[in-house]
Amino acid sequence: MLALLCLGGIATAVVWYNRASTPDRSTPDVAVINYLQATLVSRDPNRAGLFTCEGAVPSVDEFAADVAGRERELGVSFSINIEDVAVTETAGADATVVAVIRRSAAIDGIYQSLADTWQFDLNNRDGWRVCAGSRIS
C-alpha cells in the first residue's frame, strides 16, 4: 500500500513538473509574448530559444543589446511591456503577429516611454515558434 502511494506521488510530481516546465507555444500570440518576455524582460537566451525556429532572431537580439546599452549609458533600468499583441494572418502552419514593445524609465526624474511596433513571422513546428521579427514603426 505504501509503495503504491509513493508511486502515485512520484507520478503526480512528474506531471506537475512537465506542465510547469513545458513552454506554452499553443497559439502564435502566446509564443510571441513568451519569446519577448524571455528575450527582453528575463534576458534568458536559453529560454528564448525554446520559442524560436532556429536559434536567435537577429533583429530582436540587436534590439535587446541596444536596450541594454542604453540602460548602461543612462544608468537606469527600463521597464519593458509587450502590448497590443494581435495575430494578423494565419495560413496553415504560418502566422504573422504584430506587437508593440514599450520601454519606459525615469530619466533625470522625468518618466519617459518609447514604443515600437514589431511584426513577427511564426511557424507551427510542434508548437508555434518565432522565425523572424522586424520593427515596422
Summed up, what is this model?
This protein is of the alpha+beta class and 137 residues long. The chain has helices at residues 2-21, 28-41, 45-49, 58-74; strands at residues 79-91, 94-107, 110-124, 128-135.
Report what the structure shows.
This protein is an alpha+beta fold and 137 residues long. The protein has four helices and four strands, in the order H-H-H-H-E-E-E-E. The protein has a four-stranded antiparallel sheet, with helices on one face. The longest helix is centred in the N-terminal third of the chain and has 20 residues, at 2-21. The model has no long low-confidence stretch (mean pLDDT 89).
Radius of gyration over C-alpha positions, nearest whole angstrom: 19 Å
What characterizes the major β-sheet? 4 strands, antiparallel
Tell me roughly what share of residues is in helical segments: 40-55%
Helix and strand succession? HHHHEEEE
Beta-strand percent range = 35-45%
Number of strands: 4
What is the overall number of helices?
4
Average of per-residue pLDDT values? 89
Termini separation = 64 Å
Shape: globular
The largest sheet has its strands arranged as 1-2-3-4
Which regions have little confidence, pLDDT < 50, spanning 5+ residues?
A: none
User: Which structural class do the helices and strands define?
Assistant: alpha+beta
What secondary-structure arrangement, pairings included, does this model have?
Layout: H1 2-21, H2 28-41, H3 45-49, H4 58-74, E1 79-91, E2 94-107, E3 110-124, E4 128-135
Antiparallel strand pairs: 1-2, 2-3, 3-4
